[in-house]
Amino acid sequence: MSSQFVRASQEEYDSRVVTYKDVPVVNLSPDAAVHIVAAKNATLSFATVAPNANTKIHSHPAEQLMIVVKGELDAVVDGKLYRVKAGDVVKIPGGMEHAANTLERECQLIEVFAPARKDFEEKLQQAIAAQK
């Protein structure tokens, strides 16, 4: 199948493919470091959260999918507590109050936000500018 397609140029590749670990780290809090990948209509966050970290109850307009890659945590969504572990996906509608509390071990998460989180994109631009 690959032989029927023309290989992308380096410029095309660079415009479409991101190695997330090459993206500067953004510290959302002392306990949460993220690599942010921004697209037109969605924002992707690769997060590492320290053990025993607690986020405050908050909400944002964007819908959120939180994928637990490593570890486990207690997610609070709309006043209910959910113990989630690696392989679980938490679905959080936009505007709904939520929080997350890690347990004894570090957690790694992938978070998808739609529509795009402009506040995350601004933090990413600040981290890029700080590298220069």
Which series of helices and strands comes N to C? HEEEEEEEEEH
Provide the CATH topology.
Jelly Rolls
User: How many angstroms does the end-to-end distance come to?
Assistant: 42 Å
Beta-strand content: 35-45%
Globally, the shape reads: globular
**Within the largest sheet, what's the order of strands?**
1-2-3-9-4-7
Mean pLDDT: 95
Percent helix range:
10-25%
Task: Tell me the number of structural domains.
Answer: 1
- Poorly predicted segments: none
- CATH superfamily, please? Jelly Rolls
Proper CATH architecture: Sandwich
CATH C-level class is: Mainly Beta
Short précis:
By secondary structure, this protein is an alpha+beta fold. It has 2 helices and 9 strands; from the N terminus they run αβββββββββα. The relative contact order is 0.24.
Name the descriptors.
132 residues; 3-stranded antiparallel sheet; alpha+beta; 6-stranded antiparallel sheet; Jelly Rolls
Your description of this structure?
With 132 residues, this protein is of the alpha+beta class. The protein has a single domain (20-131), classed as Jelly Rolls (Sandwich). Helix content is 16%, strand content 42%. It has a six-stranded antiparallel β-sheet with strand order 1-2-3-9-4-7. Strands 6-5-8 form a three-stranded antiparallel β-sheet, with no helix packed on it.
